[in-house]
Amino acid sequence: MFSKVLAEPSVVGFFDEERDADALETFKEVADGSRYDLRFAYVADEAARATAKLAKGPAVLVYPPPRFVSDKYEKKRARYPSAKLDADALKKFLFKKAVPLVGQKTWKSNERYEKQNVPVVTLFAAIDLEKNPKGFDYFANRLRKVAADFVGKLSFNIGDKEDFSYQLEDYELVLESKKDVGVGARDGDKYYHMTEKFNVDNLRAFAQDLVDGKLTPKIKEEPDYGSGDDDYGSSGDEDAGADYEGSDVTVLTTDNFEDETAGKDAMLEFYAPWCGHCQQLKPTYKQLGEKFAAVDSVVIGAMDATANEPPKESGIEVQGYPTLIFKKADGSTEPYDGDRDLDSMVDFIVAAAGIDKSEL
């Protein structure tokens, strides 16, 4: 059975809590300030260090998502190359090494790929790691044959074409049939697509032409979100929350956050009006608000985090869009990192809030 844990990268530090106190503090600082899709842990046991075959002194290892690592092409872990930890250097190292040769494109992994500072080549297909893992592996094995020759020049991943259907137009890809697959590449605001049928040879030629600068990109210009005339609303305070006005989602601001969420279980979305992923989530999130509209003990809230910020005492830090946090009635919080379909979010809230699903 597919495990989501195996599909995410992990960071493990090995420290002597007294001898390596400064390094451990830096490690914790990086862990506290990182996106929650990187899982952190540290070990202080010398026996565990010996098992990991590490010499004395602080050590930080990053493990790319095990589900996507191929023993034939890549190593299962990478070690930070210095015993002296520098926060900025460590962050850059973690993002670079947390990406496998060929991984999965998800809303969480996008940031890691963007931080590689190289064009990202994506194969769009109908994939389902839980129901059809062999289907994903079929494509991944073919991409690896090409990706291995472009390390440091290109990154490669596979995205479910239904999940990212809203992006296909950017690449000028039309994938109407379930069996249709397409390859696109993005380099900042430049978008490319492979015109030939997908196979290893054609993909290699496409990748080489991309690196050599022989392809003509489509330039995607970001719309002006500051005019207040578009569907996304302005980033100014007067229009904050326009995305959810008139729905069953509670519009949150810095000023009303405590009043609206105190003593209640709350699913909270922190979004940016210009964020494409936020816009993709919006219809489903509105349905989520409607689903819990009659449950007084639960709040489905959303905050325009470009115009507002959660109170400091909440302990919530927003470092990407959209960020989903579940805030319990007792004030404790936990990130929501599950699937972003309606059923998955409903099931999570029902379990976390301890309510009877029949109430909905």
UniProtKB/TrEMBL annotation:
Main enzyme class: isomerase
Reaction equation(s) it catalyzes: Catalyzes the rearrangement of -S-S- bonds in proteins
UniProt xrefs under SUPFAM superfamilies: Thioredoxin-like (SSF52833)
Locations listed in the record: Endoplasmic reticulum lumen
Domain Thioredoxin: 210-354
Signal peptide: none
InterPro entries linked to this entry: Thioredoxin-like_sf, Thioredoxin_CS, Thioredoxin_domain
Keywords for the protein's UniProt record, in alphabetical order: Endoplasmic reticulum, Isomerase, Redox-active center
EC number(s) reported in the record: 5.3.4.1
Compositionally biased region (Acidic residues): 227-244
Region (Disordered): 217-244
Main location: endoplasmic reticulum
Family of this protein: Belongs to the protein disulfide isomerase family.
Protein name as it appears in the record: protein disulfide-isomerase
Protein's organism: Aureococcus anophagefferens (Harmful bloom alga)
